[in-house]
Amino acid sequence: MRLPSTEIAGRKKSSESNDIFEKCRRFTRPGDLQAAGLYMYFEVFGEREGCEAGEARLGKRKVLMFGSNDYLDLITHPKVKEAAAQAIRKYGSGCSGSRLLNGTLDLHIKLESELAAFAHKESAVIFGTGFQANYATLSALTEKGDVMVCDHNLHASLVEGALRSPARTLRFRHNDLDHLERCLENCSPEEKILLVSEGVFSMEGDVADLRGILKLAKPFGARVYVDEAHGIGVLGATGAGAAEHLGVLDEIDIVMGTFSKSLASVGGFIAGDRSVVDYLKHTARPFVFSASLPAASVAAVAAALQIMKKEPERRNHLIRIANLLRQELSDRGFRVLPGETAIVPVVIEEEMDLCRLCKALLEDGIYINPVLRPAAAQNLLRISCTAAHTEKHVDRLITTLLKHTRALGIEA
Ligand SMILES: Cc1ncc(COP(=O)(O)O)c(C=O)c1O
């Protein structure tokens, strides 16, 4: 459609404010934080060669890393690195095509069958990222007339998938089963329901009440989808996540997992009924129209999965360290959110206090991620434990935290 000439003239006059880039120039928050010396993002990490367990290289310094989701400390494991290197030698650096066409390797098929068994499901499919797995699945699986009933604190990838879907979305208060029940009662008998939760919530680190969720879902015929991004490797007898930990893995309809945390690589997967997985493989647009995961990433996941199965002591040590840290922090009056996972979040009310604290910790050689609202319901110092951490690391973290919260006048 062409604009009438009078409108074109009007547009020409206000061309400055009509520029689509205008909002970018007005977006000064990062610059403001940089000017205040409080910008905490895009820190540049270097190679890990020469770093001790639990450390990362930041510029010329080595820092104690309490901000990584490499929960089982497998990213630098010699077997994982060798598996990736060998896969590159054998298969090359990429697949150059969608899984649907020329991008499926024997490595993908083998890993998918291992993941299906791991998640106690008939079938599994690998995606390029965990984000893609959630986004693609929620948007492909639901149609107009369906309802997605979602926990309020879901990760952005699930929220985006729900937004992209033509289905109605209802959000229940975080882990609140009474509210969930009311939302389910709000659905009409004709509506088909997908109930979506995380197993371990990514920011707060708490575990969903999956038993209660399943109990409520069944009478409504709702299917249950659980994102186990932060549960895999951390919870459950075989490390399959929160559902296994709670003894309900077989009852979950769809298990989603990422490779970017305990599985030491990049990518994600969905496991479920064969018909569901086949449907996604042919209809989920971010899967069909995107190149497949390179051999090196797949091989790294396969190696990490083997180590995870053979060495449950990694998981046990991780949980022991995280529990120790939680206890030590609450003994000293810090507002730690309760939990049983690798994520130990401390509430720091004021955004500026949190940024100052993270900067001060970093200057003292400890890296921790600040999580600012609205990424979480409260501003959080999100401490992330891994199997590489020791009691000495915990002591150093506590001492340094106390020093800086006192110096900055931050109430613990
Ligand atoms: C709960 C949850 N789901 C999905 C994702 C996306 O995973 P990925 O980073 O592997 O794309 C994340 C990442 O942080 C997450 O925390």
Structure characterization notes:
There is one protein chain. The chain is an alpha/beta fold. The protein has two domains: 137 residues, Aspartate Aminotransferase, domain 1 (Alpha-Beta Complex); 233 residues, Type I PLP-dependent aspartate aminotransferase-like (Major domain) (Aspartate Aminotransferase, domain 2), CATH 3.40.640. The chain contains 16 helices and 13 strands. Strands 3-9-8-7-6-4-5 form a seven-stranded mixed beta sheet, sandwiched between helices. A three-stranded mixed beta sheet has the order 1-2-11. The longest helix has 20 residues. The mean pLDDT is 95. It binds pyridoxal-5'-phosphate. Pyridoxal-5'-phosphate binds next to α6.
Explain briefly what this protein structure is:
The chain is of the alpha/beta class. Helices cover 42% and strands 15% of the residues. The protein is globular.
Largest sheet: 7 strands, mixed
Bin the helical content.
40-55%
Q: Catalogue the ligands.
A: pyridoxal-5'-phosphate
Q: Total number of β-strand segments?
A: 13
Level-1 CATH class name of the largest domain = Alpha Beta
**In sequence order, what are the helices and strands, one letter per element?**
HHHEEHHEHEHEHEHEHEEHHHHEHEEEH
Structural class: alpha/beta
Rg computed from alpha carbons, rounded to a whole number of angstroms: 23 Å
Rounded average pLDDT: 95
**CATH homolog superfamily of the largest domain:** Type I PLP-dependent aspartate aminotransferase-like (Major domain)
> How many distinct folded domains?
2
What fraction strand? Answer: 15-25%
**What is the CATH architecture descriptor of the largest domain?**
3-Layer(aba) Sandwich
Terminal Cα span:
60 Å
Low-confidence stretches: none
- The dominant shape is globular
